[in-house]
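User: Structure please.
Assistant: Input sequence and predicted structure:
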Amino acid sequence: MPVQVDVLGPLRARRGGVDVALGGPRQRELLGRLAAARGRAVTTAALVQDLWEEPGPGARGALATAVGELRRRLEPGRAPRTPARTLLSTGGGYALALPADALDAARLEGAARTAPASPADTAGGPADDAARLASRLAAVLADWRGQPYADLPERDWVLAEREHLGELHARATERCAAALLQLGRSAEAVSVLDAHVRSHPWRERGWADLALALYREHRQGEALAVLRRARALLAGRLGLDPDPVLAQLERDVLARAPHLQLPGTGGGEHGARMTIDLPHGTNARLRTSVEVARTLAYSGGEHLATAQRQRLQAALSAEANGDTLLTARLLGAYDVPTIWTRSDDPVAAAAVVALTRRTLERVGERASPALRARLLGVQALEHRGTRDRWAAEAAFEAERTARTLGDPVVLLLALNARFVQSFQQPGAAGERERLGAEIVELATRHDLGAFAVLGHLVRMQASAATGAFDAAEQHARSAEAAGDAHGSPVARMLTAWFRAMRTAQTSPAAQAAAAYRAADRALSGVDMPGVRDGLLPLALLCLRLRHGRPVSPLSGGPSPGGDEARGWGPHLPWVEPVLALQEGDRRRALDLAAALPESPADHLHEVRWALVAHTALQLGSPALAARAHRNLSASAGERAGAGSGLLDLGPVRTWLDRLEPLLR
């Protein structure tokens, strides 16, 4: 059975859909370097130079050992002394012999290079050709799991390959979107392009096609916003003059120019219908849209927030058409696990919650128990991070109903909802461990890989919260294995943060900071701003406080020292008092801390109040100490922040003990 090698993300090899254990880092790098050669031989001298920073006299022997070990793993059934068929020896080196379609990077290269610059350039029937082109490009784009060779060291050959494959991916994305636009599938084009323009703001073709796709979806305001954002980015951040095509497109969108519509779609007086008029067959297309959104979300990577918005748009379209049951089913069909307690798109989440609540009220007794449980679960999942009791009650009702149905997916959604709502009560790591264990058991029994990833990550976080780091490590490994098997990169990106947190507890500060920055770079391939915004600065702040080092003056802009690439994001109010103390402004620190709101009910509750405790101790403020003590006391048996699985500010009990003298 031939081996399939994937490099468009973390390196992996599979045989018959099952991962091949590649062994240590040297074997993985060797496989990656040979894959980059696309079947060409690589000399022994070149391999030694590329795989060792400072090759010693034993490097050639170590390479031969790595080749033998990798060959054994790639061809476990090969008889002794028979020729190798996959990892070949050449006159002066080695080559990887794979079938033409067995390397994802080669498939991407082939599709990107043979696709015409425009679908209209194809010969024959334009619609058929565009459909074939869109299908082929969508297939290779689905192979993209994040940064190519994501788990390999940043050697020169790796960096060159990433740049090359990134350009091909961008080109394929734009040509796929163009084909979808030609076919009139503008909603799909929006899904393809939305994350693309964020990652490639200098590619003007992407901005133009995204605006056109939004306009054809009757979203004129969003189309204008996209064009203006493109202009601001190109001029302000990149110092480029926007292409005249973008400026003309903006004028055409404002004027609702008839030529913007796909030929044959009509468009009323101004060439664009500004009310939703859904033709026959829309129900099937809307269901397909949600299925595509689910697939995008399951694949992780850069598509998570895009999938959420696509799901919302489909449900809103069904509501506008007056089909309440379809609206309910579309909302409930998006059974995508949720691990983090802060939404990636709060506006879209609030819209989903509002739509779900009014749909549940309208559908009434027409909703089956399973559909009702799904809708209740949606409410609780999307309205996370708050202390609104109705959201927690929706999760409990969803669970009670689901337990009577015998449907594992409905129960898993309800347990996921219970998990995110459990943060309303601080100190609930034990409850989350129980929920995670049931999620793992159910998901494993019913072969639901995405939920198996969720359950193991929940257990990793719950174990870390109580300082059971060996158990947390085991759950991290299980999450990685489940994620690899399911084709999702998210698990490894989050476990990289967990291991950076462990490094921070056991290693010098400089080594820990480097681990955090590496984990942050890995997370950059995921459309999860709810997790990533401000996370690296917060983790480095925790690291500095634990080591007694000066705090960075970063306050929403770049750090003078270059430690943080982004601002504090949502964490700024809780960090500002600490920064004011560092600057010697005690009065401002006290005022800022006194004005702090209640903490969101999320993974970082204890970290926020530990920062307040730090401020109270520095100021000697009994009032501030009392507030921090009150908010931390329920978590006395846990560690501040470790329940996130991402960062740690030490045992909560230690903070409480330090505060108590101020309370006497």
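Residues 118-125, 266-281, 554-566 have pLDDT under 50 and may be disordered.
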